[in-house]
Amino acid sequence: MATQIESTGQLERKLQMDVPLADVNREVGERLRKLARTLKMPGFRPGKVPMKMVEQSYGPQVHAEVLGDAVSKAFGAAVEEHGLRVAGQPRIEGREGAGEDVLGFTAHFEVYPEVQIGDAATLEIERVRCAIGDAEIDKTIDILRKQRVTWEPAERAAQDGDRVTIDFVGKLDDVAFEGGTASDFPFVLGEGRMLADFETGVRGMIPGASKTFPVAFPEDYGSKDLAGKTAQFEVTLKQVEAPKLPEVNTEFATQLGVPGGDLEKMRTDIRANLEREVGQRVSARTKANVMEALPKLARFELPTALVQAESAQLLERARADLQSRGMDLKQLPDIPADTFKEQAERRVRLGLLVAEIVRENGLVAKPDQIRKQIEEFAQAYENPAEVVRYYFSDRERLAEVEALVVEQNVVDWALGKAKVTDKDIAFDELMAQQQG
């Protein structure tokens, strides 16, 4: 089958192809005859519908299906013939003047760019480190104690760390505003759950006392009616409760699931969990640094189709995220089409670059690497063997792990060639960060 290909841009291509009309008509006839063998129509027994009626009722649909299949097959053959790597879906349109015996079509599409990888030794990458010692274990134990805090009534002035129960009424220009009134409302002073002025006003009050004080709402406050304004709050403090943390003893260790309440075993388990969590976060930070540096290795054009597809996915995720937060999308303004263009371009560029690095350096995931990664995941669960079986029984999950291993192979490759600077990061800083 004759095909002609033409470059219409750096990545844009135009392909002309002809589909023999006789082949299309023959396939249409075969499909209609096959359909007629079992077709049911009012007034006829199955398989006895006149062929002319079959053609009248189903001919256009079958012809469209056959033609679509023929064009798709012709395009696939032409792509293979010319050794093309097509990016996105082609736009196919009919072409006049192809001849009496053929149907002419023109396909417009893009191809993947040629990616030339530069010298990775020119990269400068920061590798993150974080040490785990007794102090970090003690901090974690304190957090575990606070998670199991109990409260005891205190007949004294409220201070940070106390849980207070209050009644309050908020007013603007002596008028109570919606959402500004509550009874028996508890919160812990000093946690930042309430506005700073509100906590300052409550701090130092004693049970049974009432007080009126101003509270300034920030300019970016969620309610437009309150943003940037100052309200007066009338507060009655009904109860002050002081925190009581559990002692670190065998009972505490037993509550954490340590057999026999062995305190040394508890610290060993906490250290292992911390090392695993810290290792994951450090690895994620270092990986992010590598991925940020990699685009410096190559410059190339991006297929518009891939960028548009990535932008559409990012937009869909954003809409789903807004819905999950309880927002009505119909009440929100439309998100501009180019909102995620820059982010999409970065993601597409990095994806193409990483794929070429993997191909050029043989960095595909090996079976033993995949198993090791899954076993590391499984250690965080009560029954690791069951988790391993779950991953290997789910092809989709297995593919996700394979992708993670490939990414790590690329990270290791880059770190092995680049100029690497080690950066120590504080435990508190690392653990406070939200990992995506």
From TrEMBL:
Gene name tied to this protein: tig
GO biological process, one term: 'de novo' cotranslational protein folding
Stated family: Belongs to the FKBP-type PPIase family. Tig subfamily.
GO cellular component terms, semicolon-separated: cytoplasm
Species in which this protein is naturally found: Zeimonas arvi
Major location category of this protein: cytoplasm
Official protein name in the record: Trigger factor
HAMAP family for this protein: Trigger_factor_Tig (MF_00303)
The organism's taxonomic lineage, starting at the top: Bacteria, Pseudomonadati, Pseudomonadota, Betaproteobacteria, Burkholderiales
Catalytic reactions of this protein: [protein]-peptidylproline (omega=180) = [protein]-peptidylproline (omega=0)
